[in-house]
Amino acid sequence: MIEASHLCRDFGDFRAVDDVSFSIQTGEIVGLLGPNGAGKTTTMRMVTGFLTPSSGTVCVDGLDITADGCAAKNKIGYMPESAPLYGDMITEDYLAYVARMYGKDPEERLPRFARLCGIGAVMDKNISDLSRGYRQRVGLAHALMNDPEILILDEPTGGLDPNQIGDVRALIKEIGKTRTVILSTHILSEVEMLCDRVIIIAGGKIKADSPTEELRSRFGHNVTLRLSAAGCQPDGLCALLAPMDGVLSVVPETPAENSPDAGAAATVVIRVAEGREVRPEIFRRLAAKNWPVFELSVMRDSLEDIFRTLTTGGNGDA
């Protein structure tokens, strides 16, 4: 459906996107994830045809976005980070204008997308009077008005409160059942909840491209142990375990006040070298000290850990 090949985009001497290639199939919900300034928005603008690549190509359903711009763009619905709405218009009038601009019948389109986007209650209201959450919904209705096969959303939940975020996420999930969706965000929980696949970009380059469920197994190689033991202090645990072969660090942790272990056990977090098994030796050392173990649990890299590693150069390119 979308084929981006060796995309580059320069702004003067600055290269914002550097040799980015990816392929997105029909029906996928793909998260384009990266820190601020990573090149996400520039990449999306090239995919939608808003920006011309300095080099490289984008094809949408076999159509070159530059050479066959009108036909390719007709397959895409795009909502920028701040939906570009006419604030002085009534919601219904604005969406009817958008429908006519696409050559569509407003009488047929408006009821369908008002229902899908949950904006029926504000169709008679001035856009400038709407909350940001409703303005995002109107922006989605605008992006969908041509009934596109591909929906591209740039930071769709930015600036929303938690209730509005939940509503917009549910809406995107519903829309994604029948369309290909590319979602740009830096909110990790959003990616886990919505996306089938994640592309992580930093410094204008792709650092990872993987199904969401496989991301941890492919890139989350670090293992951390959480240990709670009685009869000792955190400093004593650190001194006992830090010299062990395969242990990278031991850091004290303060249990929450309402934790059953608060005041009864010392708790530490142990970073372990990749591929090392240290738990039997930990048990032996604590048994020799007669320190009962309350807990020894494995905490593998979270998506946040993987994101931080990949976007700060810890693991290099994928």
Automatic annotation (TrEMBL):
Q: Which UniProt keywords apply?
A: ATP-binding, Nucleotide-binding, Transport
Molecular functions (GO terms): ATP binding; ATP hydrolysis activity
ABC transporter domain residues: 2-228
Do the record's keywords include Nucleotide-binding? yes
Under SUPFAM superfamilies, the record lists: P-loop containing nucleoside triphosphate hydrolases
Q: Where on the tree of life does the source sit, at the highest rank? A: Bacteria
Pfam families in the record: ABC_tran (PF00005)
Q: Which SMART domains match?
A: AAA
Question: What family is this?
Answer: Belongs to the ABC transporter superfamily.
Q: Could you tell me what this protein is called? A: ATP-binding cassette domain-containing protein
Q: What is the lineage of its organism?
A: Bacteria, Pseudomonadati, Spirochaetota, Spirochaetia, Spirochaetales
